[in-house]
Amino acid sequence: xxxxxxxxxxxxxxxxxxxxxxxxxxxxxxxxxxxxxxxxxxxxxxxxxxxxxxxxxxxxxxxxxxxxxxxxxxxxxxxxxxxxxxxxxxxxxxxxxxxxxxxxxxxxxxxxxxxxxxxxxxxxxxxxxxxxxxxxxxxxxxxxxxxxxxxxxxxxxxxxxxxxxxxxxxxxxxxxxxxxxxxxxxxxxxxxxxxxxxxxxxxxxxxxxxxxxxxxxxxxxxxxxxxxxxxxxxxxxxxxxxxxxxxxxxxxxxxxxxxxxxxxxxxxxxxxxxxxxxxxxxxxxxxxxxxxxxxxxxxxxxxxxxxxxxxxxxxxxxxxxxxxxxxxxx
Length: 330
Description:
Blueprint: H1 3-16, H2 20-30, H3 38-48, H4 51-59, H5 83-92, H6 102-115, H7 129-144, H8 152-165, H9 173-184, H10 196-201, H11 208-225, H12 240-255, H13 262-274, H14 305-326
């Protein structure tokens, strides 16, 4: 996989779909076109007026969110069931804090959650819940505004915990537990999962050795438990995405957050490239349920083959771009 090949697939989607939000995301998020580039500024007005952006604007509440931060009801079927989902969707389609005021309002909402100044409070069903939610809030704030000073304290907590847990180059549960008990004043043996995504938001503050240790432990665990290597088919079967894709792509993306992810994903990338059609696009076939989650779609109606191809191809392009970026030095 090289940049020329990624460009060819991206431009194939660009020519296939004239929808402004799709074309804008291809240029901005996939091909890294500078924000002030003429090709982007010409598209931006159409992008910001598109139905997918308008939907996020119209459904955002006066607090800056989309309902509760996290839903305790896992049966929720709403298109944007939680504020976390809504913010992730805004980030995925290419919105920045400079575009309209959607992410600006979302940032203010996250500040109020983090500091406890808003109407919504963090739920504390157990002693792990609050530190876990604080990490998730900061992960979103860092995505909206990299280097957000409001997240400094939470970030330093997790860098300290990770440093203790991987001090010897391998994961040590006892050291992780001792560090979490020290930092969060918790007592349970069950721990808050290692917040690797937040830690990697400030990758320059982590040593390559620490990131590699997390890759081997967390990425290796996802690889072992992802249940895809011995079942990856040569041809996509009927109902493929409904039966397998939600699990496989979640695992792919989780491993892919680390530098050196090809240690576990090289075969998956070769497989994905073979699944592209003659037109350079991907199609997972008829959809019954969301294979990638609520926020990963550009289509307002995903039952049409055209929309399905756009959604599938965009997801693969994001994955491949991240894979190339994280494996250039490996």
